[in-house]
Amino acid sequence: GAGVSQSPSNKVTEKGKDVELRCDPISGHTALYWYRQSLGQGLEFLIYFQGNSAPDKSGLPSDRFSAERTGGSVSTLTIQRTQQEDSAVYLCASSLEGVGTEAFFGQGTRLTVV
Amino acid sequence: RKEVEQDPGPFNVPEGATVAFNCTYSNSASQSFFWYRQDCRKEPKLLMSVYSSGNEDGRFTAQLNRASQYISLLIRDSKLSDSATYLCVVKGVQGAQKLVFGQGTRLTINP
Q: What is the mean pLDDT of residues A29-41?
């Protein structure tokens, strides 16, 4: 597709269950970012990939959160043993290499933990 | 201190007014700068990049002051459709390409 694609668009899960969120970046974009946004709040950085490696994963809130990227393309963010405070919109973005290159966002996955 | 700081607002201005937003960043090694716009319950989208010499795109003007580590956005002749949250973004703060977002400034244009 032409843009960043995220799936699912909405996810309701029970507390304690694991969830996987998927991001398909724009073809050729080597940088990929995950952010979290709670209602009425700003974007919280989670992790950034350059190719398949993650130079900066400092934003992952706890060891329940993990992410991987394969083939320099698709990325999966996994949240284990979900808690109610994990409820938020999870946004993925991708960009070309280099400074000055803009990032394009997907429409996000709205996660609700009940 | 946050890496990127913005006045959260909200700013409420009448249609046709000029409004200015400011943003400061903490790391002098930052390499590139952007303003994004986010509409309610939508993803952020690029409004404009910010260049050292300053740049203009229609009613929007962006300025960068590297010495003061300060970025600004000016909107002239504001329209109702300009109502949104404006996000200051800095790239290359830690590591080559990490994007750091400010908290955003909420703008409402009133008829």
A: 93
